[in-house]
Design brief:
four-stranded mixed beta sheet, 4 strands, Ribosomal_eL8/eL30/eS12/Gad45, Ribosomal protein eL8/eL30/eS12/Gadd45 domain-containing protein, Ribosomal_eL30-like_sf
Amino acid sequence: MENKDRILNFIGLAKRAGKVTTGEDILLNAIKKNKIKFLFIPSDAGKSSYKKFMDKSSYYGIPVNNMFVKNDLSNAIGMKRTIIGISDSGFAKRLNEMTNNCKGT
């Protein structure tokens, strides 16, 4: 299994565990309350959404990954969403390791 597939499967696991937050307004509030530990922003997100969430994540020190497109992330969690936040520090730590290891592929 390819590294990207493993990451997407792990996102699906986080979703089933109830550790995924979606929806722009909900995510922004969760970021402000320091509840989001890792953020997936698709490379094909709209310019304003992309900038808004990159700025927020930079300000609050949240690691971000943008190696996927909307369709990949939507398929991983089983619902059509653009931006995905991980609220559990254990899942976030593992996803951070996995995405850092995947950058070379």
